[in-house]
């Protein structure tokens, strides 16, 4: 047990935001503490290091992958609660990062798609994000690496070295450069609490923008002629025959080579995470900093990034709290969402969410996520199984289905996707419980769109080539059913964790479908989703409908 752990997180000393009475109470409590030196230090500071990787998945030992070598993430997992059912709220870079930093889903914060270039999506001007909220409470904020959100007024950082100020290759992939910048941030002023966000660009693909460095920029800085060196990186290479091919990727030589390249880039990310932890330790902040590691969206493989299937939504999530060392290395199977990260950081820093409205709505913006700190006390010993497995027999499930009330009591996370690139309009909404996934494809009459980056990837080219040439394609879908989706997709995850059989039209699932649709609709309504009434009706919420919103029918047959 750490000397400064009081057992109740509400009583963690933090003079800056406490009333005089609370401070007096806590001072009294502290007098009974034996190790005064540590306590005094902790009183001064309560910090956050949030590390967000780019398109990384579960390729690490803590999530059952023993082929991809990630010793530093493994180390971090040993001092974290490992959330084995963590989900992004949208599987697209800028929208996801905006949701992480605001606690609001993409349709509520306005970041409907990518921020860069001609996509140019931005959050609404009056949205409040973590860096702005905590800065107002005296916390120093820093961002090193990929930002990919805007406008600056919504996402202000005191210290920022991003793709907007220098090359993303340097601030996002050169781990030596990242380490130098993080050290600079930690050295600048270590008397104020800080919120430091490190946005690794690894292991994002780069075949589309920098093919000279390989499909995943796995050669950048590896010391070979023309590649430069990254002094802190020791590349790890893999035999394509050895990689773990996930169920949603075709098992072909092209896909295996793609995965092997991804693994090599993951070694740079992993070593970067190790460097960040070493910097935190040498700055003396290992014991007063909440460390969060996650990735923004699913891996850039079929059914992954830009999809709301689990390969697109499932994320690694390690939360390391020095206040919760008893649960270090334990797993938590609660459903965690990226929408929980803003409430988690706010609780840790003891800053409350501001009371304000977005786009002239009469109701204040509310966070639909939850703080994860209370769950750090309820970890389970590692069961070694990251997949949902509730051990419900078919018979039990029959009973379960009849009692919709039980389903209602199941926890849920939500997802909302509108675009990725500006041309890729494909709005989807989803609710996921431990037992079910329901996806609403609003634009289901159109083929699912493919982004420029993924299009050129070997794994997708292989699917196109094999489909065109009618060659065997050992994949769990066909190109046609990947493109054309039903309006409602319901998956029974106990029997079908790979989401292969849509049961939305099956009679015995109609109660579940109705229940999940109602909950999804209520969440969309609560988060002011402009897509609330699609595709069969039009939302009216102003003028004479200002006080009672309505979905007015289009008679379009949908
Ligand atoms: C953090 O706290 C633990 C437990 O009290 C202690 O063993 C360790 O030395 C501390 N580390 C630092 C860097 O202060
Ligand atoms: C460090 O932070 C304190 C508190 O906000 C401030 O008064 C001081 O000027 C800062 N020092 C530096 C070197 O930035
Ligand atoms: C990475 O950054 C270090 C420190 O700035 C620099 O010396 C090195 O050349 C960079 N490597 C690449 C590949 O750009
Ligand atoms: C973590 O797991 C261990 C067993 O490995 C268990 O004894 C302990 O109670 C768990 N801690 C928490 C906080 O759940
Ligand atoms: C938020 O602000 C509004 C408008 O000023 C006020 O009516 C409401 O009571 C406030 N809510 C809270 C929880 O403070
Ligand atoms: C796909 O086919 C094109 C055109 O024949 C070829 O250039 C490319 O190498 C193939 N790619 C894969 C991954 O099979
Ligand atoms: C929809 O949201 C509005 C505004 O927050 C709320 O007043 C209303 O009760 C909600 N309707 C439903 C059915 O949840
Ligand atoms: Ca991404």
UniProtKB/TrEMBL annotation:
Protein name: N-sulfoglucosamine sulfohydrolase-like
Family: Belongs to the sulfatase family.
Signal peptide per UniProt: none
Keywords, alphabetical: Glycoprotein, Membrane, Signal, Transmembrane, Transmembrane helix
Membrane-traversing stretches: 21-44
A Gene Ontology BP annotation from the UniProt entry: heparan sulfate proteoglycan catabolic process
Organism listed in the record: Homarus americanus (American lobster)
InterPro entries linked: Sulfatase_CS (IPR024607), Sulfatase_N (IPR000917)
Residues in Sulfatase N-terminal domain copies: 46-350
CDD domains: SGSH
Lineage top rank: taxon: Eukaryota
Pfam families documented for this protein: Sulfatase (PF00884)
Tagged with keyword Membrane: yes
Keyword RNA-binding: no
One annotated GO molecular function: N-sulfoglucosamine sulfohydrolase activity
């Amino acid at each position: 047990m750490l000397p400064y752990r009081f057992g109740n997180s509400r009583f963690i000393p933090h003079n800056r935001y406490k009333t005089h009475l609370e401070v007096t109470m806590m001072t009294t409590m502290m007098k009974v503490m034996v190790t005064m030196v540590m306590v005094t230090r902790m009183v001064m500071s309560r910090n956050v290091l949030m590390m967000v990787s780019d398109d990384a998945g579960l390729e690490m030992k803590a999530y059952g992958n023993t082929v991809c070598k990630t010793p530093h993430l493994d180390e971090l997992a040993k001092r974290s609660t490992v959330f084995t059912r963590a989900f992004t709220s949208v599987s697209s870079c800028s929208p996801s990062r905006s949701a992480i930093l605001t606690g609001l889903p993409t349709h509520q914060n306005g970041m409907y798609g990518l921020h860069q270039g001609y996509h140019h999506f931005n959050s609404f001007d009056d949205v409040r994000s973590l860096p702005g909220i905590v800065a107002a409470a005296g916390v120093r904020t820093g961002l090193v690496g990929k930002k990919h959100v805007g406008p600056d007024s919504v996402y202000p950082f005191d210290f920022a070295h991003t793709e907007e100020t220098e090359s993303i290759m340097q601030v996002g992939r050169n781990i030596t450069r990242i380490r130098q910048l993080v050290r600079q941030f930690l050295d600048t002023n270590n008397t104020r609490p800080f919120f430091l966000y490190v946005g690794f660009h690894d292991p994002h693909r780069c075949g589309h923008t920098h093919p000279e460095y390989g499909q995943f920029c796995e050669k950048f800085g590896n010391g070979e002629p023309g590649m430069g060196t990254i002094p802190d990186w020791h590349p790890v290479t893999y035999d394509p025959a050895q990689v773990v091919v996930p169920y949603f990727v075709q098992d072909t030589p092209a896909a295996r080579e793609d995965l092997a390249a991804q693994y090599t880039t993951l070694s740079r990310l992993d070593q970067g995470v190790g460097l960040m932890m070493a910097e935190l330790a040498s700055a003396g902040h290992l014991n007063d900093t909440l460390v969060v590691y996650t990735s923004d969206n699913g891996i850039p493989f079929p059914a992954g990034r830009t999809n709301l299937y689990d390969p697109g939504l499932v994320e690694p999530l390690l939360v390391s709290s020095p206040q919760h060392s008893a649960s270090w290395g334990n797993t938590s199977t609660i459903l965690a969402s990226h929408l929980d990260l803003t409430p988690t950081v706010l609780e840790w820093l003891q800053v409350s969410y501001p009371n304000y409205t977005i786009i002239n709505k009469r109701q204040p913006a509310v966070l639909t996520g939850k703080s994860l700190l209370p769950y750090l006390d309820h970890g389970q010993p590692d069961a070694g199984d990251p997949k949902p497995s509730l051990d419900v027999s078919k018979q039990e499930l029959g009973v379960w289905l009849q009692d919709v009330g039980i389903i209602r009591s199941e926890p849920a996370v939500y997802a909302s996707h509108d675009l990725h690139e500006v041309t890729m309009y494909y709005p989807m909404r989803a609710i996921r419980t431990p037992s079910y996934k329901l996806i609403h494809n609003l634009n289901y009459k159109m083929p699912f769109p493919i982004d420029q980056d993924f299009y050129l990837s070997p794994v997708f080219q292989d699917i196109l080539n094999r489909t065109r040439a009618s060659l065997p394609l050992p994949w769990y879908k066909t190109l046609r059913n990947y493109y054309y989706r039903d309006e409602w997709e319901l998956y029974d995850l106990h029997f079908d964790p790979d989401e292969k059989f849509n049961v939305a039209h099956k009679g015995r699932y109609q109660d579940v479908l109705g229940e999940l649709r109602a909950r999804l609709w209520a969440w969309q309504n609560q988060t002011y989703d402009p897509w609330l009434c699609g595709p069969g009706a039009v939302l009216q919420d102003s003028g004479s409908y200002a006080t009672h919103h309505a979905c007015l029918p289009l008679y379009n047959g949908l």
